[in-house]
Amino acid sequence: MRIALAMLIYLNALFAMEGKEVYEKKCASCHPGYISMSKLKENFQDYNNTLLKLTAPTLNQLSYRLKKSIGDPKGDNEIHRMEVAAFISEYVLHPDRQKSLCLDEVMQSFQTMPSLEGKISEEELEAVSTYIYDFDEKVLAEKGVHYEGFEKALQKAKQEDKIIMLKVMTKDCYFCRKMEREVMIEKEIVEFLEQDFIPVSIDISTTELPLGLQTELTPSFIFIDKNAKVLLNIPGAWNKMDFLDILREAKTKQR
Questions:
Q1: pLDDT of 61-117, one tens digit each?
Q2: CA 61, CA 4: separation in Å to the nearest integer?
Q3: What's the CATH code, domain 150-252?
Q4: Measured in whole angstroms, how far is the alpha carbon of residue 78 from the centre of its chain?
Q5: The pTM is what?
Q6: SS (H, E, C) the chain
Q7: In this structure, are residues 127 and 22 in contact, taking their beta carbons and an 8 Å threshold?
Q8: Distance CA 175, CA 197 (A)
């Protein structure tokens, strides 16, 4: 069983690498890899794409929009992957502007992509579809905030004189996912948290909050000092600049 599992992990990693190579060879010239959501919003909403001058959606935009808009994102993962792969294959071979999943204000900056029929194989389409599907979560794991368990965080808070930032969420909370994807991945946020805070994430649909804490609002951000004293309890989703202000406020309450 262990050998079979190890082989499956190896094959998945190999397949992902092949998908990355297909992307770099046949997609990257038009579709950039990762650009933060704050920068993308600034580009399209404030500068009408004159800031970044993109010619096609970024890979993180594609990954997110495809998974959100095709099939049932909450259903069986393998079926969902197949549905997304089928859409990608059909669109790449037979581009149709009417079937684009981009927001209207984004799509108006782009031309319809040329067909890759005869220029990409079925195996390459399958590999790149897997790479695109996994890209959004992979970027979050690599660039986003890393969370500790609460007990370990409390020990570290005492040792390092840091504040625990407890993120209260549920997996089905739209604004929780929005915060994670758009704010908790921003470089300034990640660096600020790494310097002065110990992040903890708790899904209240499956786990009770520590210290007898209670809240039904998600997301909520509860800041706790090394002595397990609550410094601040802030509900809601925030943009990058507002959340930086919240972090600074929590710092001022630390003794």
A1: 999 999 999 999 889 999 999 999 999 999 999 999 999 988 888 888 999 999 999
A2: 34
A3: 3.40.30.10
A4: 20
A5: 0.84
A6: CHHHHHHHHHHHHHHHHHHHHHHHHHCCCCCCCCCCHHHHHHHHHHCCCCCCCCCCCCHHHHHHHHHHHCCCCCCCHHHHHHHHHHHHHHHHHCCCHHHCCCCHHHHCCCCCCCCCCCCCCHHHHHHHHHHHHHHHHHHHHHHCCCCECHHHHHHHHHHHCCEEEEEEECCCCHHHHHHHHHCCCCHHHHHHHHHHEEEEEEECCCCCCHHHCCCCCCCEEEEECCCCCEEEEEECCCCHHHHHHHHHHHHHCCC
A7: yes
A8: 22
Q: What residues does CATH 1.10.760 cover in the chain? A: 2-143
For domain 2-143, give the CATH number. Answer: 1.10.760
Count how many Cα atoms sit within 13 Å of the Cα of residue 192 in the half-sphere of its side chain. 19
The amino acid that residue 217 corresponds to is L
Assigned token pair, 9 = 């992990």
From-to residues of CATH 3.40.30.10 in the chain = 150-252
